[in-house]
Every structure is written in structure tokens, then in C-alpha cells.
Amino acid sequence: MIYEDFLSAQSFFLWSTFVIALIMGAVVNKTNFCTMGAVSDWVNMGDTGRMRAWVLAIAVGVLGVMALEAAGMVNVTSTFPPYRQTSLPWLEYVLGGGLFGIGMSLASGCGNKTLIRIGGGNLKSIMVLLVIALIAYYMINPFPGSDQTLYSTLFYPWTNPTAVALSTNQDLGAMLFSDNVATGRMVMGGVIGVLLLAWVFKSADFRSSFDNILGGLVVGLVVLTAWYVTSNIAVNADGEMMSLQTYVQEWDMYAPADAVKPAAAGPLASQSFTFINPMGQTLGYAASGFERTLLTFGIMALAGVIAGSLLWSLISRSFRIEWFASGRDFVNHLIGAILMGFGGVLAMGCTIGQGITGFSTLALGSILTFIAIVIGSAVTMKVQYFLMMRE
Fold it and tell me: Could you tell me where the DSSP H helices lie in the chain?
């Protein structure tokens, strides 16, 4: 996908993201694919159907990335965010994942489910989105008139010193096969992907569930498609094929004088779906008066998922306006949104961003985050059940 000018390449980058996200939104709404629901079904009813759908999405991502990376068709090492970075801030992954798991249980869904609910008419989720966006924005961006962020004030002084500096990238292939990383990534991707698939399809109930199979398969393929598209868009800069990120970094050398430069090069790197940090990006974009230079993959992904969910809600006539049932319901959603905002940025992703997108790269941090999210959510549900029984 080579373009003769940056604007055309960037437009395809953004609009292809919207279309892929729209498909995700429609299918997730149709199949009720839900990571919080997956944990809830498992913990409260012993039903692993939606958990297997989530793991199916992970398996598709892992095996797809393994194959495409081996063929040189995707770049999942120099990404935005940097899943395979050589620094391993394990405490941030574990703490952030745990906070996110607690938060999504209180707020009735993860970041992606929040967007799906908005598309279906749930007004509660609009409040959740706004709170997450505010927290996520100031976790990364400084307060007005200051150089301090929520992250630098609340977390950096005591979480960052625990980070482990690795001699390799933090994906399992590089860590276990440092002498032959390419082979290691193929081996680990193949083994883990096949084991995950074996567990998923071991269940006869799951094999007979069309929606669970469709949901897991499509979400995994959507994540994989985004990796492929964002890794292969290039600009022909005087005969030299350059990625969008590299082109922006060399802007003054190649761009026409009247061209509009994006605010940052990082968000133009290869990437796939994640939803918490992009909520903060969307807030910044809206606050700027919808300045085009701030338009990113993440913003288009949010818009696409909501649009896809809305489309399916209208087609299926399932669109329903929903509001808070009580004051306690409001407080639970508020606290949950705050925790998801902190946790999602601290852990560098959510149940989709780390639990599927990051996991597909076999980054150790993503796997730690996935485990922490599931444990945080499961423990919260057990506590909620205990309190309900006491009442």
C-alpha cells in the first residue's frame, strides 16, 4: 500500500481503521462478545463459553502474528504502544491490570464494552467514557500550567524503580531464544497458539455456539488486520519507500511547504486495537476544536466501534435507552470508570489492548496484564456476591 503523498496515505490509515473498527463493533454487539461477561460467566455460573471466545481471539492473534511476522508482513516490535519494549515495568502491569479488572466489574464492562453499550443506547456508558477519558488524558498529559501528570505524581516515583531492564525484547520468543529470535518467535507462537486453540475447542458446548465462535474469530481477525494494514502503509518520498512514522520524523526534508504536519509521529507507527489511552486522545481532540493534526488511529477506532454497534442495534432493533437504576449504580460505575482510567494507562492497555493485541505479540507484560485483569475482576465479583448474600 504505497502512496505518492502523505495526505493520501494518512487518510487511508485513518479510514481503514474506522472500517475495521466498525466491523468489530457490529460483530461484538451481535455476538455479545464481552471480556467482563466472560469472567462473570466463569466465576458465577461455571460457564466458560465467553471465556473461550476471548481465548479464541487471542489464539487467532498469536498464530496470525506468528505467520505474518515470519513472512515479513507485519512489524510488531516497533509499535505504538511499545509492547515488546526492553524495559519490563512488571509492577505497573500487575497493578494496572488489577485496577482495571476491578474497575470493569464495577462499571459493567471494559473499555470496548463501554463503546458497544454507547452504540446500543446506554447513557450510563457515556459517563463511564468521559471519566475514563479525563483520567487517561491527564495520566499522560500535564495539568494546565504544570509539567506534572497524574502518572508522574501518583505512580512514577515508586513503580518505575521496580522496572527490570532486559537484554532482549520482552516477548517470549526473544527472551527464551535470544540466539535465534526469529525461530523462537515462530516456535513460541505456534506452541502457545495451538495450545490455546486446543483448550478453546475442547468444549462441545463451545463448538456448538455459533455466536461465541463468530465473536472470538472476528475479534482476533480484526486485531490481526489492523496489525497488517498499519504495518504496510508507505509513502513514496522521492523514490524512497517510507512508513508514515518515519516520514513525519523526516518531515522537513520531504513534506511540501503547504502540508499539515501531524502533532506526533508515534501514533502513526504500526499498531492495533486498544481503547483506554485513545479515550484520552479523543478528549484532547475534542478539546482542541477537532484539530486534524491530533487525529489518530485510536480516535478513529473509538468512532468506528460505536458506529458499528449503533448500526447493529438499529438493524436488530435492539437499541434501548438505559440510565442508572439507583444512586449505588451510579457510584459503582463512577468508581469503576476511575479505576479503569488509571489501570488501563498504567498497564498500557485493556482487555483488548493488552489481553488480545498485546498478547498477540507474546509480550510478557501483556500476559501479566491479562492475568492481573482476570484475577482482579474475579475477586471483585466474589466480593460482590458475598456482600449481596449478606444483605
Answer: 6-31, 35-40, 49-70, 90-106, 111-119, 124-140, 150-154, 156-159, 172-176, 181-201, 204-207, 210-231, 244-249, 251-254, 276-287, 297-315, 327-346, 364-390
Give CA separation, 110 vs 9, 29, 195, 231, 341, in Å: 32, 14, 26, 27, 10
What's the confidence (pLDDT) of residue 109? 93
Q: How far is residue 40's CA from residue 298's CA, in Å, rounded to a whole number?
A: 28
Query: What is the three-class DSSP state of 45?
Result: helix
Residue 22, pLDDT > 80, answer yes
The pLDDT value given to residue 389: 81
Which of 316, 325, 350 shows the shortest CA–CA distance to 111?
350
Phi, psi of 237 (to 5 degrees): -100, 90
How large a percentage of the chain has pLDDT more than 90?
Answer: 93
Q: Which CA distances in Å does 285 have to 231, 233, 272, 338?
A: 24, 23, 20, 20
Q: What is the pLDDT of residue 277?
A: 97
CA distance 251 to 230: 19
Asked if the model's pLDDT at residue 334 lies above 80, the reply is yes
Q: Containing domain of residue 50, as a range?
A: 2-390
Q: What is the DSSP string of 99-162?
A: HHHHHHHHTTS-HHHHHHHHHTTBSHHHHHHHHHHHHHHHHHSPPTT-S--HHHHHTHHHHGGG
- Nearest to 346, CA basis, from 372, 317, 320, 311: 372
DSSP code, position 86: S
User: Per the structure, how many domains does the chain have?
Assistant: 1
Backbone dihedral region for residue 108 (phi beyond 0: left; psi -120 to 50: alpha; all else: beta) = left
* pLDDT given for residue 320 in this prediction: 95
Tell me the pLDDT tens digit for each residue of 38-76. Answer: 999 999 999 999 999 999 999 999 999 999 999 999 999
CA atoms within 13 A on the CB side of 273: 34
pTM of the model: 0.96
